[in-house]
Amino acid sequence: MTTTPLRIDIISDVVCPWCIVGYRQLKKAAEASGTAVDIHWHPFELNPSMPAEGQNMVEHIMEKYGSSQAESHANRDRLSAIGEDLDFTFLFADDMRMHNTFDTHQLLHWATLKGKGDDLKQALFIAHFTHCRNLSDPDVLATIASEVGLDRAEAEAILIDQRFSDQVRAEEKFWTQQGITGVPAMVFDRQHLVTGAQGVDNYANILSQLTQGGGASE
Length: 218
What we know:
The protein is built from 9 helices and 6 strands. The protein is an alpha+beta fold. The protein has one domain (6-51, 99-211): Glutaredoxin, CATH 3.40.30.10. Strands 2-1-5-6 form a 4-stranded mixed beta sheet, with helices on both faces. It is globular and about 50 Å long.
């Protein structure tokens, strides 16, 4: 068991199903092996040009990836089954929408400064995938922020004045310049990049390799 937490930087988007899957798999592996981890979330927008009203998710997936409706539904079923094993509920609906997430990343930046970054991140994943809440709606976002103990009025003000937009854009640019083109992307101990949801066993092997010699983050 490591005594110093292993730093893991996770680049992700809250409308990315494999991001929550990968995170839950990583956490399960860490808990099973007794590995202490120090998670740092970073922004990535799957659809930076998505309009405010969003787009039907099935239509979006079919357009973006060239998949058929049957393939899209099969992928939903697969994700739902994986989610069950990880105690995460995916409740996909035909009218579910893909949203622009830039505002969510601004609130996450603020929440991290307040020590609530992980709380808000998990709440946003659940809001989108389990409860189909509209993450393009400022009122919904402010409500979710208040539900994890953040100040609703301040959340509303942030969404109006966009005070963290430059910081979020700069961080997004930093990670794309590091070669990140898809998520989830995890950087272990500031040097080992792992992309995609790898599965509990693979994450357990990664953690074991990085901690065997006592190597850990600063």
